Structures are given as structure tokens and as C-alpha cells.
């Protein structure tokens, strides 16, 4: 899928950040399961929150390095 990846790391970062933001917003909009609710919904609620938390833990340490590289590259181009 060449339209998804152009080789530009800044574009890839912002695309990924946007997808993560939409995913996070969708998960945050889920209502907590109520007593007597479907067991599948309870499982889905816990699973998606776990997935979002782990994605955040994996991506958070990498984000400052990516932003620093992007800023450094932009500063070099502007000089």
C-alpha cells in the first residue's frame, strides 16, 4: 500500500499519532459495563482499555526521540 507509506518519517509519525488519538477517543467513549451486562462487552471493555494502555506505554518513550529528531532535521533545513 504505497499511498500509506511515503517514506517521510514526520508524516508517518503524525499519521500514527492521529490513528492512536482516534483509537483512544473511541475507547474512552465506551461506557463501563453494568451489572447484568453481556459478559462479552465486559471482556471487550477490559481488553480494549488494556490494549490502549499498553500501546501508550510502548509509544510514549519513543515519542520524545522522534520529535527531537524531527525538530533537529527541520532546524537543519531552515539554516
Please, could you describe this protein's structure?
The protein has about 80 residues and is mainly α. The protein contains 2 helices and no strands. It has one domain (about 15-70). The mean pLDDT is about 75.
Short description:
The chain is mostly helical. 76% of the residues lie in helices and 0% in strands.
Whole-number tally of structural domains: 1
What's the count of strands? 0
Major β-sheet profile: none
Task: Write the H/E string, N to C.
Answer: HH
Q: What gross morphology would you assign?
A: elongated
Task: Let me know the average pLDDT.
Answer: 75
Extract low-pLDDT stretches: none
Through-space gap between termini: 34 Å
How many separate helices? 2
Computed CA radius of gyration, to the nearest angstrom? 18 Å
Structural class: mainly alpha
Tell me the fraction of residues in β-strands, as a range. under 5%
Approximate helicity band: over 70%
Amino acid at each position: 500500500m504505497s499511498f500509506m507509506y511515503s517514506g517521510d518519517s514526520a508524516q508517518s509519525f503524525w499519521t500514527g499519532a492521529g490513528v492512536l488519538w482516534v483509537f483512544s477517543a473511541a475507547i474512552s467513549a465506551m461506557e463501563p459495563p453494568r451489572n447484568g451486562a453481556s459478559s462479552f462487552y465486559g471482556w471487550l471493555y477490559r481488553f480494549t482499555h488494556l490494549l490502549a494502555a499498553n500501546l501508550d506505554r510502548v509509544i510514549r518513550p519513543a515519542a520524545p526521540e522522534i520529535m527531537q529528531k524531527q525538530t533537529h532535521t527541520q532546524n537543519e533545513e531552515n539554516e
